[in-house]
Amino acid sequence: MLQSATRWATAILLVSSLAAFARDKKEKPPAAHLVDSGSFGVFVRGQRVVTETFKIEQINGESVIKSQLKETTGADPSSQRSELAITSTGELLHYDWSQASGGSLTVYPNNDFLLEKISAPAAGKPAEQPFLMPSTSVILDNNFFVQREVLIWRYLASDCKPEGGNLKCQEGPGEFGALVPQDRTSMRVRVVLVGKEKTSIRGVDRELLRLNLESESFQWGLWVDDQDQFKLMKVVIPADNTEVVRD
What we know:
- The protein is about 10% helix and about 55% strand.
- By secondary structure, the chain is mainly β.
- It has one domain.
- The chain has a 15-stranded mixed β-sheet, with helices on one face. The protein has a two-stranded antiparallel ribbon with strand order 10-11.
- A hairpin with a 2-residue loop joins strand 13 (about 185-200) and strand 14.
- The longest helix has 14 residues, at about 145-160.
- The radius of gyration is 18 Å and the shape is globular.
């Protein structure tokens, strides 16, 4: 059994923003609801090279995902920040990225396109690049693993449902159009539910729910905790000898 229907319904309410709550305009805006926060350690060949600190909040039916990357090596570790805002139905409101050494970008819907504006250090007018993609496309930018967690939640909410006390997903992979803003590229990705399996988290074996994230050029293994709101616990990228683990 993968999950009870009650726990599944609670998780979808919290992490997928599927219900927008009506309120009187005269009332004060509700406080942000914290869905998930923490950090991921990124290890290459067993050595920690990056720490990602993240926070996911909901307010007024919208979700805001903030993340910061800090390298753990070098005399002057670089830092990157991102903020992703989506509606209760998964539509992009905006995505912003910047780095301490200079340079930034933003992505937002523009009619039937997604428009990316890129500002290089010491440059003048930002460059623009349109993508013929709907606003429901997912953002999967470089090195921000919390965005993979959001994708998993979206897959579980759209392609899976409770049935007889179990989690039942459609046959075959869930497919999504994705944009990688830092690379200025788009792709199709697939999410495949593998099932429960044991995996080591900081030296301790745990039984977690495994999914695979695939495209034409890569395959990642992702493990989420179906006992704790389907939070992402581990990512393995075999081709890069990389492992990502929640702290």
